[in-house]
Amino acid sequence: MLFGKRGIVSIVGGLALMAAGLIGYFKYDEIVNGFDFFSTGNISHLPFLRTENGKWGMVGIDGSLLFEGCFDNEPTVVVNNRFYVKNKDGLWDLYSIDSSKPERVGQSSYRYAALFFMDVAPVVRPNHCIEIIDRNGRVLHQIDKLAGRQVLRISNFSEGLAVIELDNHQFGAVDTTGQLIIQPNYDVLYPCHDGRLIAHSSNKMVVLDKFGTEVFSRIMKEGFSHAPYYKDASLAVMYLRDSNVKKWALLNQAGYEIRVGDGDLVDFQGEMVIVKTKDHQSLLNVKGETILSVTGQNFHFASMEDRIWRIDATGRYHLIDINGREKGNAEFFDVLEYKNEYHPFYSTGDEVAVVSTGMGQWGLLNTEGRVNKEYYSLGSFNLADCWIYNEQIDLDYLISQLLVSSRGLDGLTFDSPASEVALKSGDTDASNYTDLYDIRYVKSLGKGAVTIVVDFSDQVGYPDGTFTDMTPDYFEVRFDETGIFYRKRNEIFEALNRYISHLHGVEHIENQGENAIVYRFGDRVSCVVYRNQFGVYLMMSLGEDSESEMKEIAQDGENEQLDDDSFRNEERQYERSDTD
């Protein structure tokens, strides 16, 4: 045995650090799976379907049947004898497998919920703040505000810590009691693993211990990238060196480089690495000696001890040992993978992989390449929610981030050129705005988002890629009843009016029934706050007729423009969609 017993294993093979199209960047949306963490429960059971139109049951990773045909919706995997299933309202219900059939735990249903990789898990009930519950569903702690700011979201716990994001978009970490352990001073913070957390602060990658002490850092120069967490006590990093040649390295927990090589680091496990150079991949040992090498095929480590997946030119998976010997003489269409660097680390243990043996057939594969039983589906490795979002949101704070003033909003003014507005939208190609009279984009407010529309009196761009010299004469903000703003129409309407009415120089003109209030900023800028069945809207207009225009919009009410995605310029020949 070359690796030794790892204790850190993934479901389909380590950390696959796929090389991106841009030199020197790891492609994190292709990171395969996670890892289990220490002293916690692994996945013990998987949801399954016997037939395509059947109901979901649960099977142990050893192939033993737990129950069958119980749920219409796919359950999560089972960890620490607990799993979730979404009910008819789309909320998570908690279940136990302490007996021979699933039993509901507690009376609460959750908008967001995390698995019990420890004896506690963060959850959020509808319209509540973040809560930490035990395996009986009992609330142990509440998390709403820390360090004087509201907590927007929290990750699951890993090695006793959970990452949090505050309303100023800074990250820190709390322990299982909700106490702040790592101060929220970081632009990015990844979950703890191997006793280390990776953070970003300004232009630095910072490695922290579990108490928040900085162990070492690296300047993130052009071409530098890194894995999101330690694995097997090593951190994979990539540099650009020697005239833009890619170099990878493994850093130990003190920050020393313990291996450096050329090419793309695909995967590593213990003292073995898989490296891609040009058209072939190689498995190397700690001395840099080549053990296996293939052309036109790929490797990555399997979850099982001393096993590797070889992916042939047709995309089929073959289980081999580290000497290249095929196990089981079978090929598989797919293996079940999970890809998200922020999700809790997890494992099914060292002995099992989940494989597709054909269309509509999935099975549990052992280390010798034998499939236990076959099912129509073994689920999608549903791990509940990656992030748990606070629903007890501070609307006043979120709305203040719109930066409304008599001159405009969101950092734009009635004097901003079209090119500046386009920069906000992320689309600066003027040819995309030919014959358009507006630029629109989405702005994040916490977990929620609003659509901002900036109107001009003439077209914004020309086919030759140049912008006109037009400046805005109209701003609009749309709070659709989705995400965290769902069923909060009245609260948003009230919070918006509180905010506008306290702005410098604003004058309250008149109410238009219960659903619209008109305001004026001086002689040339007026606005209206309006609500209807679709959501809440803030509109601002510039010009001598702006007040009468806002009053007209308010008076028109629900019979007017709010149901066709346009509030003015009905003669406009073309409307740009909200897909950006």
Structural notes for this entry:
The two termini are 52 Å apart. The relative contact order is 0.10. It is globular, with a radius of gyration of 28 Å. The strands form eleven sheets. It has a seven-stranded antiparallel sheet with strand order 40-41-42-46-45-44-43, with helices on both faces. Strands 12, 13, 14, 15, 16 and 37 form a six-stranded antiparallel sheet that branches. The protein has 580 residues and is mainly beta. The protein folds into two domains: 28-388, Methanol Dehydrogenase, Chain A; 393-563, no CATH class.
Short description:
With 580 residues, this protein is mainly beta.
Topology:
Elements: E1 43-48, E2 56-60, E3 65-71, E4 78-79, E5 82-86, E6 92-96, E7 103-110, E8 112-113, E9 120-124, E10 130-134, E11 139-143, E12 145-146, E13 149-155, E14 162-166, E15 171-174, E16 180-186, E17 188-189, E18 196-201, E19 204-209, E20 214-219, E21 225-226, E22 235-241, E23 245-251, E24 257-262, E25 264-269, E26 272-277, E27 280-284, E28 290-295, E29 298-301, E30 307-311, E31 317-321, E32 326-332, E33 334-335, E34 353-358, E35 361-365, E36 371-375, E37 387-389, H1 395-400, E38 408-409, E39 412-413, H2 418-425, E40 438-445, E41 448-455, E42 474-480, H3 489-501, E43 506-512, E44 516-521, E45 525-532, E46 535-542, H4 546-556
Antiparallel strand pairs: 1-2, 1-4, 2-3, 5-6, 6-7, 8-9, 9-10, 10-11, 12-13, 13-14, 13-37, 14-15, 15-16, 17-18, 18-19, 19-20, 21-22, 22-23, 23-24, 25-26, 26-27, 27-28, 29-30, 30-31, 31-32, 33-34, 34-35, 35-36, 38-39, 40-41, 41-42, 42-46, 43-44, 44-45, 45-46
